[in-house]
Amino acid sequence: MNRVIYKPGLFILLTFLIFTTACKSTRSVMKQPLKRYGFEFLYTKMSENQFKFDYLDVKFSMTYTQGKKSTDLRGQLRIKNDSITWLSFSPALGIEAARIALTNDSIKFVNRLNKTYFTGRYNLIDSLINTTIDYSILQAMIVGNDLTQYDVNKFRSTIDGDYYKISIQERRKIKKYLLADETTPMILVQNIWLDPETFKIKQIELKELDNDGNKLQVFYNQFQEVDGQFFPGKMRIEISSKEQITIDVDFGKVQTGEALSFPFKIPSKYDKLF
Asked: CA-to-CA distance for 161 and 49, rounded, in angstroms?
């Protein structure tokens, strides 16, 4: 039988090399100040590094926390870009508990545990979390992209610690994207923190103008490479409103390109909510 011979001298030497190399690397990075760039340059680089796709398919696990209550779920996410976002949720036993289909103008939801469903518009979400959100914001938030359906006014750029920060004081939905009932579009205030190497979004802070009480923050970490692009491996959503809501998401393997189906059927015996 082969034996592994323990060599403490070699082990100590390797450990020393690993840690001293790591420390030297960290000191080197920390000593290099970020080069200052204007808003136009940073916004252009961020736009160039948006995650681009036609179809997206990814499994995920998540923890939803509202107040003192937490729920662990796992599921599957499918997106057709700028068209539909489809989610299937399952508890630990693996049986589907709920299914959601989101489009530009509607929400469909089925709860298989209590045999109920809902179909309606985004004002339901507005009333539940006391903030305003639409499909384009939801999709951008999930994949870590900017709000491409909103214009940019009153902006500036700064350096905030290890990241570039761009601040936009007025974001209104571009006219061609307005829905029929959006006669008075909301004005958003947005702060974005960018990774200085990849120019990917690391953090977003979003709120409505003149409404400091409600705020949406999203944090992205552990990016994974997908088709030569970077997609977040972890996402944390914090909603500050009537009650603090936190959603921690771990994304699994991400697949793009292949056309997907988005099945959604409401059984006839289910009861409608609201």
From this structure: 21
